[in-house]
Amino acid sequence: MAKENEFSRRAFLAGVTGLAATSQIAAGGQSADPPVTAKTVQKLYKVPESREPNDLQFVPEGLWILDQVDPNQAFLVVPEDGTILRTIQTESLHGSGITFGDGMLWIGSTLGKDKYDPPRTLKVDPMTGKTLKWWVTNGYGYYGGSTPEGGTPSGAHGLKWIGDKYWMAVPATGRILLIEPETGAIVRSIPGPGTTQRTHGLAVDGDMIWCVNSDDRAIFKLDSADGAPVAKIQLVREDPEPHGLDIDSTGTLWYCDAVSGWICRLV
Questions:
Q1: Rounded to an integer, what distance in angstroms lies between the CA atom of residue 69 and that of residue 71?
Q2: What's the structural domain count of the chain?
Q3: Are 21 and 31 a contacting pair, CB within 8 Å?
Q4: What CATH number should be reported for the domain holding residue 167?
Q5: Tens-place pLDDT, residues 94-124
Q6: 9 — phi, psi (to 5°)?
Q7: SS3 label, residue 38
Q8: pLDDT tens for residues 216-225?
Q9: Which run of H or E residues covers position 17?
Q10: Long-range CB contacts for residues 250-253, cutoff 8 Å, separation at least 24
């Protein structure tokens, strides 16, 4: 465990060498408060088979929903009403991120089989759920109230494909990492938004990235070049808590709540 943790930390530090970061950004927070974009939460439906939906990914065939009840299933559904088109059983544990690229699903498994096992990122067959390849998640570790003495290491949360790579929110780093898929190597990174490190779902919107900070109940729009926040959607306590996130072909943001089970749209 110690060697794996040391390796992951060295790899993470190597990937962010040369990036400027203030002490506040290193702690996961942004100093600037961006303008608020007004949105209304539409609670669309719950998928009965998906008790704890933790991330979303649109594909031409529909909408993938990653459930975090262990071991995790993923459901391909009709976006409009949640009708299940396909269910796959994955080897992910407490999965918090899913994306689709190069014909495959990529899933952030935030827990290991043993309490002290490092979290993994999985390359998954979208037809069978079989893991084709896996990596120890770069930058995994402890954050918030979780410590080596009283918690388990945490890995990737939101994942989203862009070009031939994917973005990955890793709360323990306080950053969003651009990852080379077939090696798990960090290409570069930007700071995560909000007052805490609890970054979660991601959505790619051209040159911008939308990123959930679940503790803030907010969704930030970031410049993908440097992570500068340019807009913010602020939810209220009565809204379902934001966890997973994606954006549809019309530019509308959708999110899911692993606590209440709601699939929501922001209009």
A1: 6
A2: 1
A3: no
A4: 2.120.10.30
A5: 999 999 999 999 999 998 888 778 999 999 9
A6: -65, -40
A7: coil
A8: 999 999 999 9
A9: none
A10: 251/205, 253/39, 253/203, 253/210, 253/219
